[in-house]
């Protein structure tokens, strides 16, 4: 993880762990920043086995986890009000906007946000 800085959203990481090629490729050459909301979404997935949770925690330990700072919270409110996103997506978008890094995702909802540099990957299916 020593390439360009990216904010990885939850959909990207889920696809990464499911072996989806575009997700594997982009994450192999990036310095990965993860919003605390993505960390919580991934670790709270009900069917996550103990083995998978351990693997996931190990992966997240190699990422930079961003907390909900006041600037991120303020941007989140603006993004949510103006783009009608779900709160987790608004937090992830605000994190990327604040850090001035692209968010890499497999969720086209991020296209709604003009002030966000969103890289939308296709699953290849």
Quickly list its features.
five-stranded parallel sheet; single chain; globular; 5 strands; 6 helices; alpha/beta; Rossmann fold; 125 residues
Characterise the protein shown here.
This protein has one domain: Rossmann fold (3-Layer(aba) Sandwich). Helix content is 50%, strand content 16%. With 125 residues, the chain is α/β, with parallel strands linked by helices. Helix 1 crosses helix 2 (21-28) and helix 5 crosses helix 6 (87-99). It contains six helices and five strands; from the N terminus they run βααβααβααββ. The protein has helices at residues 10-17, 21-28, 36-43, 50-61, 70-83, 87-99, and strands at residues 4-8, 30-35, 64-66, 103-105, 118-120. The chain has a five-stranded parallel β-sheet with strand order 3-2-1-4-5, with helices on both faces. The longest helix has 14 residues, at 70-83. The mean pLDDT is 91.
